[in-house]
Each structure stands twice: as C-alpha cells, then as structure tokens.
Specification:
alpha+beta; 6 helices; Thiol Ester Dehydrase, Chain A; elongated; 5 strands
C-alpha cells in the first residue's frame, strides 16, 4: 500500500544536484528558435541587437538543459531518476507553467535543478488513488540568480495490467 504521508515526509522539498548547461546562451539558437515559433522581432534576429537584448523568455529553458547539443539521451534529472516512490507505471503531464524572473542575455551560462514541492492524491478515471506530483525546475544564471521557474504537474497512475495484478476491479 502506498503511504502518501511517509513519502511526503521524506521527499517534499527534495532538490536535485544543480546541472550546468554545456553551452552558454548563443545568438544562433535564439535566431532558430524565433524562426521556429514565428517571432520575427529584429531584436532577437539581427546580430547587431542581440548582444544588448534579453533572450526571448520562451527560449530560456532550452538553454538551461545540460546536454543541449548534440542531443543528450538524458538532458535533465526527472522524477523517475531520483527514486521517488510512485503509485504505478503510468504517467501523463497535466500542466506546465513558466515564470520569467530576470532577463537572460547572450553569453549567460545557465544551470538547472529540480525540486519536489507538492505530492497529493486525487481520484481520476484512470485510478481512484492517482498520485499528483508537482515539481519546480529552478533555472539560474552564472551569478546563481534565479532567472526562470518552471512548475510542472505530473499525474501518476496504475496501468490496467497493474490493476489486474491487484485482483481488485477497477471502478
């Protein structure tokens, strides 16, 4: 049986090791990102402006990934990597919110760490004991200033196979 109280006591506030991005913020990836999302603002595209203009906020989490280029098979620490006890093998992402706290410029070197901020159970059609996991990715610059906060909510549930193994009929 899953003991939410014991898991919460041990894991709430847990923060992973800080992982520093392999590369600093660079103009060319900003330009490609802007073209991909349809942002034609010359402040982000023209080399003469970009050194003095903050990076578009939507690109900040991209630059914080430790193994951005070439693609890293394990670009960040996830909830599954840290050993957090969960209800089952099923996961789905429920929401993602980003808060931009300070500007990021070309040449800044970003780092990221994840912390667990909330665990609770709330019934869903998938599992009446679904576990909801709220994490925050803390993105900092080279001066260790928090520049971006990414709040993510995951839903964890037991799969149909896991339900069958319990011998209990799924409601």
């Amino acid at each position: 049986m899953f003991d939410l109280e014991a898991v919460s006591a041990q894991w709430l506030g847990f923060t992973t090791e800080k992982m520093t991005a392999k590369y600093p913020v660079e103009h060319e990836p900003i330009r490609r990102h802007c073209q991909m999302v349809g942002n034609t603002n010359p402040l982000y595209l023209e080399p003469g402006y970009v050194e003095k203009t903050p990076c578009p906020p939507t690109a900040i989490p991209i630059f914080a990934l430790p193994g951005r280029l070439p693609p890293d098979p394990k670009p960040r620490t996830t909830v599954l990597d840290i050993g957090l006890p969960v209800m089952g093998q099923g996961f789905t992402n429920m929401s993602r919110e980003q808060e931009y706290l300070k500007p990021v410029y070309v040449g800044d070197h970003l780092a990221m760490q994840m912390r667990i901020v909330k665990l609770y159970q709330k019934p869903t059609r998938l599992d009446p004991d679904s576990l909801w996991i709220v994490t925050e990715d803390l993105i900092t610059n080279q001066d260790d200033e928090l520049v971006c906060l990414v709040r993510n909510t995951l839903l964890n549930f037991r799969t149909d196979e896991e339900w069958s193994a319990t011998g209990v009929t799924k409601p």
